[in-house]
Amino acid sequence: MPGWTLPQPMQRALDLAAQSAAAGEVPVGAVVTRAGEVIAEAHNMPRENHDPTAHAEILAIRRAAQALGDERLTDCELWVTLEPCAMCAGAIVHARIGKLYYGASDPKGGAVEHGARVFEQKQCLHRPEVYAGMGEARAAELLRGFFKARR
Asked: Which of 25, 41, 57, 83 is catalytic?
């Protein structure tokens, strides 16, 4: 849309994804907000932290829960540049995130609209509102550039 700009949390998530790429990590950024205020943010850090669970979403959720002093983030929104994987979708469920916004779809590793479709399972204890495709072009561009440079 002409003149349309991305909401600030998604723009920040894209900036974090670029930082992730610059650090040699897969470019994914995540921001947790509550009532329009940024509570926590992170980018992918599995290599730097030597931790396969250090995805942007997991780190941002952990930081938000610590900042708020509560493991339930019911009134929070998660803004992430890439469709969450099964691990991250599970963390979103357990944290009771109210709304999930993500940029690029991930047909290979995503678990929201692809793969396991975690939120659609009858065993799923919580289902956030999901909004896909926000900032998709920039998120996909960051990912393509990152992987192209490594081939």
From this structure: 57
